[in-house]
From TrEMBL, chain A:
NCBIfam families: mdcA (TIGR01110)
GO molecular function: transferase activity
Gene3D superfamilies xrefs: Glutaconate Coenzyme A-transferase
Protein name from the UniProt record: Malonate decarboxylase subunit alpha
UniProtKB/TrEMBL annotation, chain B:
Pfam families the record matches: Carboxyl_trans (PF01039)
SUPFAM superfamilies noted in UniProt: ClpP/crotonase (SSF52096)
GO cellular component, one term: acetyl-CoA carboxylase complex
PANTHER family per the UniProt record, alphabetical: ACETYL-COENZYME A CARBOXYLASE CARBOXYL TRANSFERASE SUBUNIT BETA, CHLOROPLASTIC, MALONATE DECARBOXYLASE BETA SUBUNIT
Keyword annotations: Transferase
Signal peptide from the UniProt entry: none
GO MF assignments: acetyl-CoA carboxylase activity; carboxy-lyase activity; transferase activity
Annotated protein name in UniProt: Biotin-independent malonate decarboxylase subunit beta
From TrEMBL, chain C:
Source organism, top-level taxon: Bacteria
Reported modifications of this chain: Covalently binds the prosthetic group of malonate decarboxylase.
UniProt key word Repeat: no
UniProtKB keywords: Cytoplasm, Phosphoprotein
Modified residues (O-(phosphoribosyl dephospho-coenzyme A)serine): 27
Name of the protein described by the UniProt record: Malonate decarboxylase acyl carrier protein
Pfam families noted in UniProt: ACP
Chief location of this protein within or outside the cell: cytoplasm
Gene (UniProt): mdcC
GO cellular component terms given for this protein: cytoplasm
Subcellular location per the Swiss-Prot or TrEMBL entry: Cytoplasm
Amino acid sequence: MGDSGTAIDGAVRDWGTLRERYCARMQRGAALAKDKVVAPDDVVALLEAVIEPGDRLCIEGNNQKHADFLAECLAEVSPERVHDLHIIQSNIALAPHLDVFERGIAERLDFCYSGPQGLRLSRLVKEGRLKVGAIHTYLELYGRYFCDLTPNVSFIAADAADHEGNLYTGPNTEDTPAIVEATAFKSGILIAQVNRIVDRVPRVDVPGDWVSFVVEAPRPYYIEPIFTRDPAAITEVQILMAMMVIRGIYEKYGVARLNHGIGFDTAAIELILPTYAADLGLRGKICKYMSVNPCPTLIPAIESGFVEGIHCAGSELGMENYVSERSDVFFTGRDGSMRSNRIFCQIAGHYSDLFIGSTLQIDLEGNSSTATLSRITGFGGAPNFGSESRARRHGSESWLMAGREAHRGNGMPRGRKLVVQIVESFREGLSSTFVERLDAWKLQESFGLPLPPVMVYGDDLTHIVTEEGIANLLLCDGPEEREQAIRGVAGYTEVGMARDPEMVRRLRAKGAVSYPEDLGVDKRLATRDLLAARSIKDLVRWSGGLYDPPARFRNW
Amino acid sequence: MKIARHSFLEAGARTRVRGLLDAGTFREFCGPLARRTSPHLPLLDMPVAFDDGVVVGEGLLAGRPVLIAAQEGSFMGGSVGEVHGAKLTGLIERALDVRPDGVILLIDSGGVRLQEANAGLIAMGEIQRAVLAVRAAGIPVIVAIGGRNGCYGGMSIIARSCDWIVISEEGRLSISGPEVIEAVEGVEEFDSRDRALVWRTMGGKHRRLLGEADALVADGMDAFRDAIAGYLGRSRAHDLDSLETEQARLEARVTRFAECRDGVDVWAALGVDAPERVPELEPDAFNRLLGTLEETSR
Amino acid sequence: MEHLEFSFDHGSMAPANDFAHAGVVGSGNLEVLLERAELSGRCEAVVDTAIRGYERTWHKVLSDFVTRQGLADVRISINDGGATPAVVCLRLDQAAADLKGAPA
């Protein structure tokens, strides 16, 4: 090795190629910018100037906010100048996200979640115009940003910027820190679309020094209220299941730190905390700290003193003032607006006592998936939240009790996270939730995936709650008991009707299968009268007028 | 924090009737046991309901005899088919024989049942004729609107032919539904998914401010019962003079609000301070506001 | 629509009331009518359902219901708009509670 560099086979290696490329890109882009600010009409030209063929590119886009204007501009660049891009972003939600594949601008995709674009995505895969690297979980994809999938160019969205490029993300910080950190510190180009350019931002969420270019988009970034569940749509069956969850799991284990998936099943739990759980004397004992978006259905539980602290992955439209006025509960900035962060929320949820969420299919081993035959959608946050946190060390009542049930004195004592699936045995249209074999297997085949797309693995799952009862898989010995415990709560599905009644009786005797009467749940109470709020208007009232629901949820 | 334990909006037809009438006094006519089901739906391979989606009967309200009908909004949108319509007509006409202190119609309907189009349309005419005959006999017909379907189509015409209308802020009253207007006139004219807009133009408060409803009440059995009880035994004038007065009022309204594009514009023109706050007002505050305005009753 | 008829011979307890009614026919919902009838201790059920092909499930759900409630001399009539078994059980149990005269 020489003194002034490292020689490999006699050649001197240059260790600053990324920085040199960054400088060249910035130089080409600077011609279109005034300081850091680029006019909306010049953005397509800017992208053609700074993006190089084969780049890894990330467009910020998640459940709440999207760098939608920049995404549209990317779809308009010339495929002759910009091509072979590798898109590495969490969410495929907007048409331009896939237009870039139709137009030959991009060819590879690593992502987490597709939602409404799932059908089109699967068509593009079949036509060979899009190669999927993997369907990641959020934490996996963000982890890979700091490993081998570091973006060369990233587009992000923020509420406001000043002329030096300092950004204010408002309540929807979400994925921004992960993308920014990976891009800015590995010689990447960071382009921000903002709703407005101001003299002074309310708080600095991203230092201007990290930001390459800023554009004031012609309209505010796209955002939609996807975590709002109207209490009017909660059914009696969901209320019955919620009662079982509270008695059979939250009360039993003393679950204080937890994560709720988003759905009507979990909304029902939230809405009977101030009524059913309060009557059981559980205030201050369960559901104290949550990792979850600021769902409006949490308002009564917060107001009645149940939930003491919430950290959020992102915000929710209409909840801004409420969150701001409840800074003892939520994480907020000095300016009063919420500070969200998806990675920290995912980590908090991963190491909490319990995850509960819903799914579309569960097999006889307890593996579950929302993947169905015609669509590629991905799973969002559920796989990270809904997995055993094996490295966890801190003891809590819930974690230790679950650990005792799991190990029953065999070997090294350790704790156990509770991972719960709450499902009705039949879904809408009378398709069975319980299946002998997940659709995920066929999906693996038809899309050439390395593994079947499973959302929560059976060995991570501890409980299944249905309208019939609760299966406690921790108390099952061996695969046969596990299968019968699942059949024992699978209702009148084919899987449920094929149970071995004698074995289910034995499992019930040892608590591996519990029905409402075993849990002290009075089915007659399962009416909508048990809900602390039965309409969006009730939620507004609970909030003292601070919750401002979007127009589509109003009936007044 | 108090949530009304006995919501009118949430309740089904029978629960509404039992919730309004004095305990134990309701006697249902032609109930589910009679199995008077639609002759049309089986031909279309559709399920029937044993009561065809309407509960009719008699009982006491605040100790006074009434006839009462309640549409079941969850069965085919409370729509009026042949049997459903015949049950309503029969109930209303019965008032001429038994002379109750009032006939109460709990409307929760999108109008005629499309699957029984002609029979349903004929039924609408029969119901309206029965209403007018009963009114002419000096028996008040009182409408309550507070269900999820609101009161649309033919039922809205019938409602406005009755003496009194009690409505909650969740209630809606209009001829054409939001989706119909959007389909015919385009989304620029009316965005049916903008529910706040729907309520600003068809909701209970707007209808009360325009004088098309006589009482705006909170969503609860007690509030509906108290308001309805106040109209028992009280008829509204229904003669040539009153019709001409009403016609003149409506003509003046068309001119006066011609430029209004939204309910909020109408409220501003009526002299409401901070009209954009009206949707947020609780019923008590709203009714206090009404007291400060003129021209909000028929 | 599919029309199904069943007969069950379980049962011990004749109802206190003449009839009970629960639920509304709608998408994913159903109405249940239970009536006292002279059936020599048997129970009979008539189901009209919008969804075909679930005769075995209906038989099991109704058979379990009659056993669970211990009903005798009851005619069960159902108009179904495609309810899941969970909803069917709930409505049946609600109607049975009324039929037995249990406090509401």
